[in-house]
Design a protein that fits this description.
alpha+beta; 3 domains; 7-stranded antiparallel beta sheet; two-stranded antiparallel ribbon; 14 helices
């Protein structure tokens, strides 16, 4: 059990800590609730308990960065969704869970499908393949695992619904009244509809997989994403932002690419990094060299080999759920003597995937660690195994790291762009529906082509179970409309919990 370090509430007096009781006694959770402070019951207590439990190792290692994660989660309902994949899994699987709905296809469909694990709109982005072609795919596989295919469908549809609700609220507030925005129910339903249509198309023709490219970008949203990626990639955006030229040598930039900010947490404020890079010491640089050397054997193309390591920095501010994790940018010499082809690589810490309580745990899964799991399932689930030719992993005892190229060609979708583009007429409601539909189709293609834990691909079994998709659309939409408001309420609960217990939810 970790140390019980209380956060004294305002009602305490005297130099010593308040007397309290453990909120997770017997579970290895060392949270102290003051006897004179607010004591949550029901959903409030559950939320605080599970958030601390899921982040306890990070709270021990770096409480300030973990407090920054909670602060980022507090800023919007969608940011809250991004940071609570573990809470979602509990809600949809555990007895009494707020999202416990009938799984319509557990008996008739495969329950060991390769899952994205945290499918949502901001985990969709662009990639430059080895042949320089740009494509769109899921881009975060930290939570990838095996389970019922409906899990990803529900999570993705829920993500679009929360994004839609948040956008509608933002548009209404900025306009001072009701405005025209997409029907959030229709947006949620578009995800399973696209998913079912993709499975049916693949069952009829295995070559009919949905592949998004610059020449075949369905809808204005993905077309804009790819155009921005092409411009930023061709301009060398990542090298320009995170490196500098020192004569005829490129060196890492150290400083703030974007300044940190203070986020209100009740009566307090919490420092949150936006985009900052800091120098690393010699032992860390040697460690990174070892990790890169180890990752070389895990890349799909052994001819891609990093040159001399020119330097490295520690990155602060990326992600929401992964905000407190170790993340370095490593600059390596390119294949020529010129500086324009130097390569910037990201080395990112990996954690265990969220547990799916009660779901069957496939004992024959082929991965023996987080590195093989994340990279292996990314290659299974993406449209092309060379979406990132630099992709690889390295293990350091119990800690694993993913290595990928950091380039302007990899551009993620941002939910915040929806309100801006809808307000100025750049995008319309049908564009949002088209994006939700194609995202469902990309998810369907991913599930269909990936191998199940037992080794066979899942497409035929899912297609047979889903049929014409009517039941999948109905059950998914029903789930989202029932559970979605709970996510919005939980975001409000987090604000209250942070105000009552401080930036670390009372852990310290």
């Amino acid at each position: 059990m970790g140390p019980a370090v209380p956060h004294p509430p305002a009602c305490c007096s005297g130099p010593g800590p308040c007397l309290g009781r453990g909120l997770g006694q017997g579970l290895g959770l060392a949270v102290v609730v003051s006897a004179c402070g607010p004591v949550e019951t029901g959903r409030d207590a559950w939320l605080r308990h599970t958030l601390v439990l899921d982040n306890q190792d990070l709270l021990e290692r770096d409480p300030d960065l973990t407090a920054g994660k909670f602060a980022k989660m507090s800023e919007s309902p969608f940011a809250f969704l991004r940071g609570t994949a573990g809470q979602f899994a509990r809600d949809v699987f555990e007895a009494g869970g707020a999202g416990l709905h009938r799984w319509g296809f557990v008996e008739s469909g495969p329950d060991d499908v390769a899952l994205i694990g945290d499918a949502h709109p901001e985990n969709i982005g662009s990639y430059r393949r080895g042949n320089d072609e740009l494509t769109v795919d899921f881009d975060d596989f930290d939570a990838a695992t095996y389970g019922p295919f409906e899990f990803d469908v529900r999570r993705l549809a829920l993500g679009f619904w929360v994004a839609c609700e948040q956008t509608g609220a933002s548009l209404a507030a900025s306009a001072g009244g009701p405005v025209s925005s997409p029907s959030c129910e229709a947006v949620a339903a578009a995800v399973p509809r696209g998913y079912a249509d993709e499975l049916a198309a693949l069952a009829a023709d295995p070559q009919a997989a949905t592949i998004v490219t610059e020449d075949a970008a369905p809808g204005a949203i993905l077309a804009a994403l790819l155009a921005d990626a092409r411009d930023d990639g061709d301009d060398g955006e990542s090298l320009a932002a995170y490196t500098r030229l020192d004569g005829d040598v490129r060196i890492p930039f150290v400083g703030d690419v974007a300044p940190a900010r203070l986020v209100a947490v009740g009566a307090r404020t919490q420092l949150v990094y936006e985009d900052s890079v800091r120098a690393v010491d010699a032992p860390t640089l040697a460690r990174l060299r070892r990790l890169l050397a180890q990752s070389a054997a895990t890349r799909i193309d052994p001819r891609i080999a990093p040159g001399v390591v020119l330097g490295a920095t520690l990155r602060y501010g990326a992600g929401v759920s992964s905000y407190p994790l170790m993340r370095w940018y490593v600059l390596v010499d390119g294949p020529s003597s010129q500086t324009h082809d130097d390569v910037l690589l990201e080395v990112k810490e990996l954690r265990d995937a969220p547990v799916l309580p009660g779901a069957r745990r496939p004992i024959d899964a082929p991965f023996d660690g987080n590195g093989p799991r994340v990279v292996g399932l990314q290659r299974e689930l993406q449209g092309f195994v060379d979406d990132d030719p630099w992709l690889g992993f390295a293990d350091e005892g119990a800690v694993a790291f993913r290595v990928r190229e950091l380039t302007g060609y990899q551009k993620g979708f941002a939910v915040a762009d929806l309100a801006v583009a809808l307000a100025d007429g750049t995008w319309v409601a049908d564009d949002v529906l088209a994006f939700a539909t194609i995202s469902g189709r990309i998810l369907g293609r991913s599930h269909a082509r990936a191998r199940r834990s037992s080794g066979s691909t899942a497409g035929a079994a899912i297609a047979e179970a889903v049929g014409d998709g009517t039941l999948l659309v109905d059950l998914t939409t029903e789930f989202v409309l029932d559970y979605g408001p709970t996510v919005l309420d939980d975001h409000a609960r987090l604000l209250e919990l942070l105000a009552a217990h401080g930036p670390t939810l009372g852990y310290r």
